[in-house]
Every structure is written in structure tokens, then in C-alpha cells.
Amino acid sequence: MTAFKSTPTDMAQVIRAFLPAYRQRYQLTPEQASVCQTIIQCQTEALGGEHTQCTECGYEQTLYHSCCNRHCPRCKQQASEQWEAKQTAALLPVRYYHLVFTSPNAPTFGTP
Fold it and tell me: I need a surface site. Which of 35, 45, 56, 72 has the fewest CB within 10 A?
């Protein structure tokens, strides 16, 4: 039996794969089209980058610029993780429950 190894899929790959079919059925707003294009170009040569080389071993690497779009999970992942850590640190060391209920005679706002 062989183990299945999955490779991580990023949002740019998903958009590249499914956006053409989606556009045949639906129309994107200009903002949506721009966000999709920006995410596809994130950390690619399309946005430019910096070429670096190690002075000791000669290893070369190109680091491409990020799009910094607020919708891009690649760019905003670190900020999301920092926000989550901050929120987690603020929690009390108790068990939490989320309850939702409706009051039968709840007042309706905006009506006399």
C-alpha cells in the first residue's frame, strides 16, 4: 500500500485552475477581477523581485515581491496568525460555550 502525499495548494493555483470556467458562467466585478489577477501574480516575476547570492557558498536565490492585497492568503497569513495568537492569549483558562437563543417577545427596533 502506497501512502498518498498531497502537495499544498495555494489560492493562486485554485484561481488559475477554476477562474476561466467560472468566468464563462458568471461576470466578475472589476474589483474581483483585479484581486484575482493580483493573487495570481503574487510572489512571481510579474511583480518583480530581488536576486540574492550568499557570499560564502555562492547559493543564489530570487525573492519575488508580494502583492500585499488584503484578500491574498499568502500575504495575510502571518498577520492572521499574529491576530489569532493575540486573541488566544487574551482568553481566560476556562471552558467556553457559544449559545444562541431567541427571546419570544424580543422588541423590534425601528417600529413603534
Answer: 56
Evaluate whether 45 touches 64 at the Cβ level (below 8 Å). yes
pLDDT at 104: 78
* All cell numbers assigned to 5: 502525499
Judged against a pLDDT cut of 60, whether residue 18 lies above it is answered with yes
Separation CA 84–CA 87 (nearest Å)? 5
Q: What b/e string do you get for 78-111 counting C-beta neighbours within 10 Å, with b at 16 or more? A: eeeeeeeeeeeeeeeeeeeeeeeeeeeeeeeeee
pLDDT, tens digit, 9 for 90 and up, residues 71-96:
888 888 888 888 899 999 999 999 98
